[in-house]
Amino acid sequence: MRRTYTLTYARNVTDVDDKINDAAAAEGAPIGVITERYLKAFHADLHVLGVAPPDIEPRVTQTIPQIVRMIERLIAAGHAYAAEGHVLFDVPKYADYGHLSGRDPDEMIAGARVEVAPYKKNPADFVLWKPSPPAIVGWDSPWGRGRPGWHIECSAMAEAHLGDTIDIHGGGVDLVFPHHENEVAQSTCAHGGQRFARYWMHNGLVQANGEKMSKSLGNVKLIKDLLVDHGGETVRLALLTAHYRQPLDWTDQLVRETGQKLDRMYGALREAGITGALAAPPSVEPPAAVLAALEDDLNTPEAVAELFGLVRAANRTTDASEKRALAESLRAGGWLLGLLAADPVAWFAAGKAEGGEDAEIDSLVAQRDALRRDRNFKEADRIRQELTARGITIEDVAGGPARWRRTR
RNA sequence: GGCUAGGUGGCAGAGUGGUCAUGCAGCGGCCUGCAAAGCCGUGUACAGCGGUUCGAUUCCGCUCCUAGCCUCCA
Questions:
Q1: What's the complex ipTM?
Q2: Residue span of the structural domain in which A286 resides
Q3: Measuring from the CA of residue A264 to each C1', which nucleotide is nearest?
Q4: Does A250 share its domain with A338?
């Protein structure tokens, strides 16, 4: 996006809610200790995945005055009301409620299953501010000591940092209702009917072996656990396998095939003589087809397919300079996707250790090279068989020492 | 039950009103001492039933199935 637009990327952090409060109470620590810990881990994981950091990362606890002021405006405009220390958004007063998520407010009210709090004028009304008992974190407000409800914080942070209207709002599909619906309602009503977001990008969810990841099912995959077994680049490409709006089923097969894909790409770079890691944007222009795929609603599967077109072209040509040019184009395309920046030789050496078993394998491969030079193929093949059985694939190189890698 | 998004070749996964996705796996060939890697070739794939059209996987309707949300979790 930055190729075409001046971009400000903001990512809100909700660093106070009832789950955090519960965790803090359980540990006897202030909420800041809990949120700081998880935020750090979150940042570390994203860094390994090659996710670009936001320009600004506002936090709820630093936005309380703006939240209070926004609630005051909503009350003044007749879109919210205070009751028993709570402030609630008056849903029926906002005619477009339900538009984003395609829901009919009347039906939702009729189908409300949850017990309706007595202070609500309408079952669909949601909390903007709620009172905090002394044991729970709270801030002074015109309605007494309390804390923000879920939803208002995002409206207030967006307003404080990006203005009344933002261009693109992202988030998981699971947040469309109620969170984003409520955000639209609050922001639109606080801004005299001004449009809140021009575009919404809702990403599909990652599933695990065909079922939803959830704590209650106990099948949640943490990024840091995935990274123990696989490189960040492999996890990243695996996540880019499906279009962002589609759900993605996380399986062992997916990860294995993703490793094979990267082997194929890095193999083409290596054969073309590309060396070293790429630390800064490449000077070569990215392939137009890759750029076009990404600019078309972020079609990453299409972009990756275009990358493979370059792989094949580079592998096919026997002209060294053409091969090199295609490989550099491939790498420039990979850069747009946050891929292929590693040193190609190092890629295939990843996971190899000095000494130990790997030193022994090195030695066996060298022995086999010598046997092949003596045309003692019987003995050379015996060593290869032994290594194959140990999960090692050998690639002979004409006029040089053989390469080996662990079989995927 | 309501809403939303989907059902594409063995698997994963794009896309399109009328020749090609792509990757993995399979099969045949080239290369190789033999392999691996790579290259070349190879698949009556578009849930079912109707409709629109000269022509539909692509548009419309219905049916069946799946996932998500409407509730926890994130």
A1: 0.90
A2: 224-349
A3: B37
A4: yes
List the A289 CA – B19 C1' distance (angstroms).
20
Relative orientation angle of helices A252-271 and A320-336, to the nearest 10 degrees: 140
* A70 shares its domain with A96: yes
The answer to the question of residue A210 being in a domain is: no
Å: A315 CA to B74 C1': 43
Nearest residue (Cα to C1') for B31? Answer: A398
Same-domain status, A196 and A236: no
pLDDT single digits (tens) A211-226: 777 776 677 888 888 8
Provide mean pLDDT across the span A220-236: 86
What are A155-171's pLDDT values in tens digits? 999 999 999 999 999 99
Same-domain status, A289 and A373: no
Distance CA A53 to C1' B27 in A: 47
**C1’ B22 / CA A241, Å:** 11
Answer yes or no: do A343 and A365 share one domain. no
Contacts 24+ apart (CB under 8 A), A30-37: A30/A137, A31/A61, A31/A137, A32/A61, A35/A59
Residue A86 shares a structural domain with residue A151? yes
Measure the CA–CA gap between A91 and A81, rounded to whole angstroms. Answer: 11
Question: pTM for this structure?
Answer: 0.91
Find and list the nucleotides of strand B having atoms within 7 Å of a protein beta carbon.
1-5, 11-15, 21-25, 32-40, 67-74
How many CB atoms neighbour CB A273 within 10 A? Answer: 11
- Alpha carbon distance A9, A193 (integer Å): 24
Instruction: Let me know if residue A219 belongs to a domain.
Output: no
Through-space separation of residue A370 CA and nucleotide B49 C1' in angstroms: 68
Which residue is the nearest neighbor of B38, CA to C1'? A315
Q: How is residue A394 annotated by DSSP?
A: E
